[in-house]
Every structure is written in C-alpha cells, then in structure tokens.
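Figure 2 data, in text form.
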Amino acid sequence: MSAPTHAALAGRPLVSSGTVPALLVCLAAPAFFVLLLPWLGWTLLVAGLVSAAVVERRRPAEGATAGTAASVPSLTRDLSLIAMGLVIVSLIDLRAQLDDLAMLRFTLALGGAVVVPYLVSRYVYRDRAIGFPWRGGGRWKPWQWAWLVGVLLLGWLILPFYFISSGVYRNWPVVDTPELIARLFVGVGAVGIWDELFFICTCFVLLRRHFADASANVLQAIVFVSFLWELGYRAWGPVLTIPFALLQAVIFLKTRSLGYVVTVHLLFDAVVFAVLVHAHNPGLLDALFFV
C-alpha cells in the first residue's frame, strides 16, 4: 500500500473543508444501495466531486509553500476513484442470486469496481494510491490467532439468531441441492474477499490520505454498510455490520495485512454460509446451532 509521507499523515485533520465533499461521495452509497435512487446517487457524486474541486482551487498553494506540493494528494482525484467504483457496482441488482447470469454480473461489476479505480490511479493519475498488501506486517501475532477463534465464536453465537429471528435469511435464495449449496459457498466467499479489496484497500486507503483514521473509517463504513444492506443484511443488520466495517479497518491499520482481514472476513462468512444452509434446510445442521 502506498501512503503519504509520515508528516502528511500526522497532519491529517479529523474534520476539514474536504469533509463535506467526501461525505457527499460516500452518501451516494446509501442513495444507490439503500434508497435505490440512482438519480440521487449520481447527484451526490457530482456534488461531491465539484465541491472537492472548489475546495482544492481555494487552497492551491497548500504544501507548495513548504516545497511539498507534489506530495499532497488530490482530494478530487481520490474521490473520483471511489465514485468510479460506486457507479460500476450500482449498475447491477445486488440481491443475492445464484444463477449463471447473476454470478457473471456480480463478477464483472464487482471486479470492475476494484480493477478500474486501480488502473486509473496507476496509469492515468500516475500514483500508487491503491495497493493490496497481502502479507503486510509479516507473521501473525498471538492476538491475531486468538481473534480468529473469537470471530468464529461470535459468529456462531450471534448470526443464527440474527438471520432466523429477523427472517433476513429469506433475502438469499433457497439452497436445497448440492449444486446450489456449492454456488452459495463460492458466492459468499467471493463477495467477502471483494469487500476488503474495495471498502478497505480502495475506499478507506484513499480517504485516509486526506483525513484522520477515525474520520476515514466512518466514511468508508457508510459505503460498506450500504452495500451489505442491499445484499441482504437488513432488519437490524446494521447493528452487526457497522461495528464489523469499523473493526476491519482498525485491524487493517494494525496488521497492514490484506491477507489477515480477508481471513477474518472469510471465517465470519463461513458461519454466514452455514447459517443460511441451516435456515433453508431445517434439520440439516440443527446439531450445530441453537436457533
């Protein structure tokens, strides 16, 4: 992961004139994925990018007086990369479906939402704002192994109650054949990996170039949770998905490891997969879950 200099990171504000443009761009996510109002999403994206350009025009010499203009990232460019990803994802229906066409749609749209901003950043904007540090900080520490166990335990305790008592498991297709169960397994895992590639390694990393970690985390969580809402995590799902989104970014900062946050996500999603199979097939996994 490419990052600003240490001095630039130390000076990142919790709130600044750039907060409003960034918030407008991130609020396009609930417009697209919660309210299902594409026109509102587009309006917010345009307003965010235009206001970001205005903010930057009003401070053209920021950094230049210190002779570091080249090291100051462009807010407009970075927000445009997030906007590209949001637009690409918004082009498809995110409701969980398991037929061949739906899985192809998801592959192209979600893949494009990661690949296009990465390529534009690297080859058009000529920077390395987006990166995918798989190993990051090296070998996993004892607390990291302990947290993996904790994730499984928390998922086992919470997820069956959430999915079944709220009825949100019905937001996923019935999986009552080996083929459909296999497709669900692949789909849940693939989307989980994509979540970390886009929300953490793209949105969070780009926002962190301009704002303090806490601010960048809250902004990326707006996008993360909105996507999960349309995907099916509704009812009181945000009570679970908001802490999860925030915590994943914190873990990424602490470990610098995409591999680790992906592992955490996949373990959690393994429980999601098992609960969905259990909910759609009473009696199949009753010995595994209390609900």
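Caption note: DSSP finds ten helices and no strands in the chain.
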